[in-house]
Amino acid sequence: MHLKGIKPLLMHAANSIGQTSTKTCLEEAMSKILSSLNIDFQEQVSTRSGFVIDFAIYLDTTHTNKIAIETDGTNWHSSSKAKKT
């Protein structure tokens, strides 16, 4: 899928999200997009520095190299709540 095709998917996913989830709307939409593209990913991955990234796409079987995807804004990720306790 080309990047142009992601915007309608994101809009559709965001519009179809219920209020019962603890994920943000953006996290729900990203999860649906990655799943629809058959991309293997992991959610809420702890890092060595104590932060938690929203999504990780691992590039190898040892989980050494990954693409980290953040879907929350800088207000959340720069707050003390964003650090793992």
Outline the structure in words:
The chain is an alpha+beta fold and 85 residues long. It has one domain. It is built from three helices and three strands; from the N terminus they run H-H-E-E-E-H. The chain has a three-stranded antiparallel β-sheet with strand order 1-2-3, with no helix packed on it. About 6% of the residues have low confidence.
Helix-strand layout with pairing:
Blueprint: H1 6-15, H2 25-36, E1 42-46, E2 52-58, E3 66-69, H3 74-77
Antiparallel strand pairs: 1-2, 2-3
Helix pairs in contact: 1-2
Number of helices: 3
Count of individual domains:
1
Give the oligomeric state of the chains in this entry, treating copies of one chain as homo and distinct chains as hetero: single chain
Measured by DSSP, the beta-strand proportion falls in: 15-25%
**Taking strands numbered 1, 2, ... along the chain, how are they ordered across the largest sheet?**
1-2-3
Largest pleated sheet: 3 strands, antiparallel
Poorly predicted runs are 17-21
Give the radius of gyration. 14 Å
Task: Please bin the fraction of helical residues.
Answer: 25-40%
Mean pLDDT: 76
Secondary structure tally: strands? 3
Silhouette: flat
